[in-house]
């Protein structure tokens, strides 16, 4: 167990819970990459932070909790839960997320979140889209393309 890296992950989630972008950014290496089922690959600290600003902007009343933080000298993991209202639909979402991390220079250089896309789609988008289409590759591509376009527009 590497206590510095456990503290780093905890600091990141504490900052996320406060929407403290500067605090989140301090946890990331300049060459960080982020991935999740929607934003598959986002490269570089500036772009990853734009992605977080975008994500937090479409979520009203975000609250987060985290647990099961583990880390060694090279990698780490945590489980976190986000509760929010998806702004474009007004629907309540409770998303359970497993996170994996890699470290370099005592900073997070790789952050990957994994969650059940179909379950998220059903909560965030409702019927018929989320329930009927949430599992299809075409629908996932539509959501991913829309998110990437929004991220590119923030540049």
**Residues in β-strands, percent:** 35-45%
> Major beta sheet, specifics?
6 strands, mixed
- Going across the biggest sheet, name each strand in turn: 2-1-6-5-4-3
Helix content: 40-55%
Uncertain residue ranges: none
DSSP strand tally: 6
- What structural category do the secondary elements indicate? alpha+beta
Please tell me the total number of domains: 1
Mean pLDDT across the residues is 90
> Might you state the CATH topology name?
Nuclear Transport Factor 2, Chain: A
Straight-line N-to-C gap: 38 Å
Note the overall shape. globular
Organism: Nonomuraea phyllanthi
InterPro entries: NTF2-like_dom_sf, SnoaL-like
Pfam families: SnoaL_2
Protein name: Nuclear transport factor 2 family protein
């Amino acid at each position: 167990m590497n206590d510095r890296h456990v503290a780093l992950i905890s600091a990141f989630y504490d900052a996320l819970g406060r929407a403290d972008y500067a605090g989140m950014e301090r946890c990331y290496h300049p060459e960080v990459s982020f991935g999740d089922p929607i934003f598959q690959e986002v490269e570089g600290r500036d772009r990853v932070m734009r992605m977080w600003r975008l994500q937090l902007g479409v979520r009203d009343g975000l609250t987060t909790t985290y647990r099961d933080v583990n880390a060694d000298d090279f990698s780490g993991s945590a489980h976190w839960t986000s509760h929010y209202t998806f702004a474009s639909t007004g629907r309540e979402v409770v998303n359970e997320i497993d996170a994996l991390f890699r470290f370099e220079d005592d900073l997070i250089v790789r952050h990957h979140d994994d969650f059940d896309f179909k379950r998220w789609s059903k909560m965030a988008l409702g019927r018929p889209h989320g329930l009927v289409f949430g599992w299809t590759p075409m629908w996932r591509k539509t959501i991913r393309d829309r998110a990437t376009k929004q991220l590119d527009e923030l540049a």
